[in-house]
UniProtKB/TrEMBL annotation:
Residues 51-325 form the Amidase domain. InterPro entries: Amidase, Amidase_dom, AS_sf. GO terms for molecular function: catalytic activity. This is Amidase domain-containing protein.
Length: 423
């Protein structure tokens, strides 16, 4: 072990910093230039010779748990929680960053993320509150709070006067339990959690491999489609990918498909006549769902899809009610090992070597976490509880239950396909 400990680290050619039109420098924006606190660090990175023009000239922000060479990774936590007491600077470009640059985009910086990416709201980042651009002092959702705000601010800039600071057209977020979709919803933009394994997670800080996703965010469906087209595809490093993951050269042309669909819809008085839409009954009967929200969502969904000509039916998957318990048992027993200690999953993978946190946690660490984001304390204690109190093999059983639940979602019961649903 000492041989490896004392050896130089390895950075694959594919993850080395992409060439830039100017030296990579970064800075913390001034308060007046960052009115919603959506920026973590600013920069201007552009490839001098992109491979495609899919994103040429488009501006992009990268969530601050995704490696951008030359920029610090803060993970939304105080610098004192990192192993050297300061924010580590990445020496790699994550796979998605390399692809975005090679598509001609301009990366304008890293966006503020919530503490450890473990909050659906926007008050836990070490840099402070991230304000909703529609209404200051209200939450923008999380944990990809900064990414959503920067895109929403860009859309609002053309409609309202005000001090918006630098904004972007597109952004990348990460999503384990809603962290792209929630802030997109709160800020009035589009955010997509892609199919698991479609977009490489290489170079991003993991929460736990089974639920790690990187996803596109934009103010239009077209923006989300083209960014997904650029980001998707096998990279050779991410064990989350499967034989169903396409090579980058064979990625689905999402923008073209969307354009064709738009044309078909615009030329039809009842564009949904060939669709049958199911409303999952159990999803509206979970504990603590507001009656007002339940009625509003179901009524709006039914009215909208029926008006478009679609058939709307109720669908029942009773096992859906066990979903939260299965999710917890399948992830929490080892989540702090991945998120707080940076341990690999056991499958060959490339984790960013710079983002090392202090371990084991001290009383000072716990005090800091309690003050900033108590949910992380829960993550730490959940692993200790599972290790000392839960039945041996619980996490493995929960993973098996995931396959069972997936089968029911596919409409094939517990004998459904292990690899997922197919048409």
């Amino acid at each position: 072990m000492g041989t490896v400990e004392n050896a130089s680290d390895y950075v694959p050619t594919e993850l080395r910093p992409q060439a830039s039109t100017s030296p990579r420098t970064c800075w913390r924006p001034k308060t007046q230039d960052n009115p919603c606190n959506a920026w973590s660090h600013r920069c201007h990175i552009q490839s001098p010779s992109p491979n495609t023009d899919l994103l040429v000239g488009r501006t992009v922000a990268i969530k601050d748990n995704i490696s951008v060479a030359g920029l610090p990774t803060t993970l939304g936590v105080p610098a004192t929680l990192f192993s050297h007491g300061s924010y580590p600077v990445s020496d790699v470009d994550s796979s998605v960053v390399s692809r975005i640059l090679n598509a001609g985009a301009i990366i304008k910086g890293t966006s503020t993320c919530e503490s450890f990416c473990a909050s659906p709201l926007s008050f836990t980042s070490a840099s402070g509150l991230v304000h909703n651009p529609h209404l200051r002092n209200y939450t923008s959702g999380g944990s990809s709070s900064g990414s959503a705000v920067l895109v929403a601010s860009h859309a609002l800039k053309s409609k309202r006067s005000g001090a918006w600071g630098e904004t972007v057209e597109l952004a990348v977020g990460s999503d384990q339990a809603g962290s792209v979709r929630i802030p997109a919803s709160y800020c009035g933009i589009y955010g997509l959690k892609p199919t698991f394994g479609l977009v490489p997670y290489t170079g991003a800080v993991s929460m736990t491999p089974m639920i790690d996703h990187l996803g596109p965010m934009g103010s239009t469906l077209e923006d989300v489609a083209i960014l997904l087209e650029v980001m998707a595809g096998y990279d050779g490093f991410d064990p989350r990918m499967s034989p169903e993951t396409p090579l980058p050269s064979q990625t689905t042309p999402y923008l073209s498909i969307l354009s064709t669909l738009r044309h078909e819809i615009s030329s039809s008085p009842r564009p949904g006549k060939d669709f049958r839409v199911g409303l999952l009954e159990e999803s509206f009967s979970l504990a603590r769902v507001s009656d007002q929200v339940r009625m509003t969502v179901t009524r709006t969904a039914r009215d909208y899809f029926k008006a478009a000509g679609a058939a709307v039916v109720g669908v029942s998957v009773p096992m859906h009610l066990q979903g939260p318990a299965i999710w917890t048992a399948a992830t929490r027993p080892s989540m702090s090992s991945h998120l707080c200690q940076g341990l690999p999953s056991g499958h060959l993978s490339y984790l960013p070597g710079h983002a090392r946190l202090r371990w084991p946690p001290s009383q000072s660490t716990l005090d800091t976490l309690k003050a900033n984001n108590p949910a992380v304390v829960n993550i730490l204690l959940s692993e200790l509880f599972a290790r000392n109190m839960a039945t041996q093999g619980l996490e493995a059983k929960a993973h098996r239950k995931v396959f069972e639940l997936r089968g029911y979602y596919c409409g094939q019961g517990a004998a459904g396909p292990a690899h997922g649903c197919r048409d």
